[in-house]
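S1.2 Input.
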Amino acid sequence: MTSYLTLARDATAEVEVRRSRFLCTLRRVDDEESARAVVAELRALHGDARHHCSAFVIGPRSELQRSSDDGEPGGTAGAPMLEVLLGAGVSDVAAVVTRWFGGTLLGAGGLVRAYGDAVRAALVEAGTRRRVLLTELALVVGHADAGRIESELRVRGVDVLDVEYAATVRLLLGSTEPAGVAAHVAALTGGTGTVERVGERWV
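S1.3 Output.
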């Protein structure tokens, strides 16, 4: 797994069904603690609402999946919300649908549709972007060559993540194709420069 979809931006969307309002808030999150903090924040913000149902999908392979009906009949809120997120193929997402009761019971089918529709509407507003797994590579060069090499690597599409200046210059590079970076470095340094693989990060 070297890439997956997540939200392009945080978003909200509201649907109304027989005077009940369903406000969906979508947020990018990195872990379950952050997702639960979103629920707590919205519960405090909308204290007059009856329900704050939620669904989370977290991890490159959607490893962590959680849902809560928050007092709605079992399986009518959190589960359909989670199904919409999984169907959209997004991860690192917390969805919270805040419901204000409009006075008319919607029935199980009506609730499933309303909660799912609220999440679908918010996903349209959020859009998606692809996260990719970068290999982090360290390159140590002399001061005289550092500027030229950094510039040439950027032109070739290599991400320069950090630059540290000391007796020598250490460039922290990121790429989805580390072998290609090694070849670029060899060409730019006349074969004297080598890169060391030092880690990975999702961006």
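S1.4 Remarks. Residues 107-126 form the longest helix (20 residues).
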